[in-house]
Specification:
By secondary structure, the protein is mainly beta. The chain has an eight-stranded antiparallel β-barrel. Residues 212-221 have low confidence and may be disordered. The chain has one domain (2-22, 29-177, 187-219): Porin (Beta Barrel). It has helices spanning 2-18, 84-89, 214-219, and strands spanning 23-35, 48-58, 63-77, 92-107, 122-135, 141-155, 158-169, 194-205.
Length: 221
């Protein structure tokens, strides 16, 4: 975890120093929820408040790279289920967590803040990358974050983004049920644990940007 934090901080410092006009800082607020052995079906089950910060570097109106750190929690309880098996098992967990991620963003239409010629004010986008999930009560795990959202130019250098994302983990221990049937073995190839986030981001471009990107604007319409 320390190495990943160092890599993210080094990357942020480097691109801030050499590419200030394309850099954004922002705030994330929303909810997080768990899907796994206790909750295999329902989205937004027993969600927890999620808050954090983001750093975005815009390569051009189509592509961006975003680093984020989010603080939240995950929880689940078999007693919430309606089936007899889970009611009888009675497993539960409740953990705080830190989510770190580095994700690429692809805008389906040109987007820039402040708005420029041939860029849109409201656009859809997708995101994916690599991350690290650190719960307080069980093993940490690398993750594959992926999601989709909408970006909106609020005016000037302000941008808002509404995003729904998912973290595929490489552990089946977030809910302490890596061996739910008590076979005294776990199967990493068939783990069920995911963390999901739904929230809004507000970001601000750090420095004025006077470049118009004419050559790029002629290529994307």
């Amino acid at each position: 975890m320390r190495r990943l934090i160092f890599v993210i901080l080094f990357f942020v410092a480097y691109i801030t120093a050499y590419s200030q006009t394309k850099a954004e800082l922002g705030f994330y607020g929303g909810v997080a929820y768990y899907m796994g052995d206790i909750n295999p079906t329902y989205h937004f089950y027993s969600n927890s408040v999620a808050i954090g910060g983001i750093y975005r570097y815009n390569f051009n109106p189509r592509y961006s790279l975003r680093a984020s750190m989010i603080f939240s929690g995950l929880k689940g309880d078999d007693l919430d289920a309606k089936n007899y098996y889970q009611q009888n098992r009675g497993a539960s967990f409740d953990t705080d967590l830190v989510d770190l991620s580095l994700q690429a963003e692809f805008n389906f239409q040109p987007f820039w803040a402040p708005a420029k010629s041939k860029t849109k004010r409201l656009i859809p986008y997708v995101t994916a990358g690599i991350g690290y999930l650190a719960p307080s009560s069980t093993d940490s795990s690398l993750t594959i974050p992926m999601g989709a959202g909408l970006k909106y130019n609020l005016g000037g250098r302000w941008t808002a983004a509404l995003e729904w994302s998912f973290r595929k983990t490489f552990t089946d221990k977030l809910d302490h049920l890596d061996d739910p049937n008590n076979f005294n073995e776990s199967n990493l190839m068939h783990n069920n644990d995911w963390a999901s986030f739904f929230g809004i981001m507000f970001s601000y471009k750090l420095f004025p940007d006077n470049e118009e990107c004419h050559s790029y604007g002629r290529l994307v319409k």
